[in-house]
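Q: Two folds, back to back.
A: First:
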Amino acid sequence: MASSSSPTVEVVKEAIEKDGFYYYLDPTIGKQVDEFAKEGYPFKTEKGLGFIKHNTLDDKSLEKIDTSGLLEIPHKYLHKDNIEHTEVEMKDGALVILDDRLGFTIVQGFAITFCFMVEEELNKWAKMKLPNSLSLKKIAISMTSEKIGMNFEFPK
């Protein structure tokens, strides 16, 4: 299901239950991602953490959308007759919210993905090492809530 405006929780959940995904075309997101790519994907900087925060955590409509926690579908299982394939062109950018059991392939271009998972699963993942700076620590703290934690560490 596609839209050209920010999703409501109900619309997103309905689309994910029906189709396995929801997307909305957004050239503004496309431009932000293009600029971020030109800068070399500076995730470990103030600007990078700001990018993550702005495009995920600050969007309160996404806060209530949950998933099953399954991490990956082996690619060989995606080429069966009973699996429906949907191709979507997102020429100028889009936001995609999908059931994490959904398999996808990027045919052209690139995607920046953010993963949300339960704490038990998160504990199995390596932490992203960030430069030990007070400004980055403040941003990381501002990204944390009672529902969402961050997987960063600041080695000395």
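A: Second:
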Amino acid sequence: MINPPDFGFGERLPLPPAGQPESLPYPADPSHGFGRVLTASADTRQGTSLSTESASGCGCDPRYPRNRQLTPRVSARYRNPGLNFAAAEVAALVQRILYPVPGIWLGPVSVHLPSGNVILQLPTPRGGPYDASPVFTYNSQAAKSSGGRGYGISDLYHPTVVQSGSSAWLTSGTGRVLEYSGVGTGSFGTAPASTRNGLQGKAGGGWIEQQPDGLQWHYLSSGLLDKIVSPSGDEWLIQRNSCLVSAIVGPGGRTTTISGDYDSTYTVTQPGGRTTVFTVENRLLTSVTYPTGAVLHLDYGDHNLLKRFVDGEGNETLFAYDRADRLTRITTAEGNVYQYRYLFPETVYDTDYYIEVTDPASHVTTVVHDCNVVRAVINPLGQRTTFAWEGTGDSRLQAVVDANSHATTLTYTRLGTGVLALSGIERPVVGTLSFGYDSSSRCISIEDYDGNTTSLEWDSA
């Protein structure tokens, strides 16, 4: 997990397609070419995964769902050459730190290692610039429970918060559980390493979750999401039918509705009348029908584990699991098979665990882990990529050493929101790229490898 800075909108150049405020986070026909989910842990036991989380895109704008893919806030081009260079370096860093494990990035699902959790995100189509885009996430290791949208399904706009003493637990709308310590009224707690959003208590009861770009998620004292507020004051109000989200009312009254009872078929209707239907049978999500007519099909096995996914073009992906509900095999639409074998330490003195990954050519890649984080990946040629972490469990990536022994070292700083943010990228021989932040947790300076400084100023929006 890294936490890159937000470079803002002001200097960003428009990206195709023309007229869109952002490049599309998923295609117009979402039945193929899904954006890659880089993390969506089902519970805290899965520890930290490498990702850009809510934000290589710097959090979740209601229009651009979090945990989707590298967003333009990282991959965009900017008018300012300093911003352009920094954005390119962060994007290159993200590519370097992705686990080089066969099969886990192929899609349409992503695989969280070392847990073996299978993650499938099902978005609704993009709407207007202020329209909410609901996203529903399936986590295989949460498939024995239901939040009202089917077993294993989380609703992006149905995160919750509970607190005991000064510790608070936030369950995100993608199924991740995050523990914050030292949370008080008007005081940000210490955020876990695997998130980039801060959390503080709210006067009168409830909580505020704040993203690096200033967008705030306001929670009621019951723990349910009440509204989302932008730095410029725009609001997205959450309406409910019992506990289920029934509508998101955006600026100007533009409303996205979600109809349907608990664990039954539900329909998302976006402004303009476009509908996406999520069919639920026996408390399992079995199909998604998009406005274009494209239909996705999902089939399940024991323990409600996803065993078959068919996209809108009829391409079939198959999955198999072990008795611990961990992924053991992926069979792609082309017939390629990727297998995952989980091995225990050979002695009581060995703290490392192993996963043997066999690709379609029968080549074996070995994943070394400690049940929380991946520590190394050894390719079929015996070349080792090593990942060093700041601590155990929920921690930030400290360094990655590639197969040629080239190390990239990362440093962090604790922001006013209680979040650890990336403060430096050190590359061998090249030098260090540094980021500075103000008391409002905004990036205000970038110093490149040659010592040249780019300063950032922010307006209220």
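Q: And?
A: Confidence is low (pLDDT under 50) at residues 15-74.
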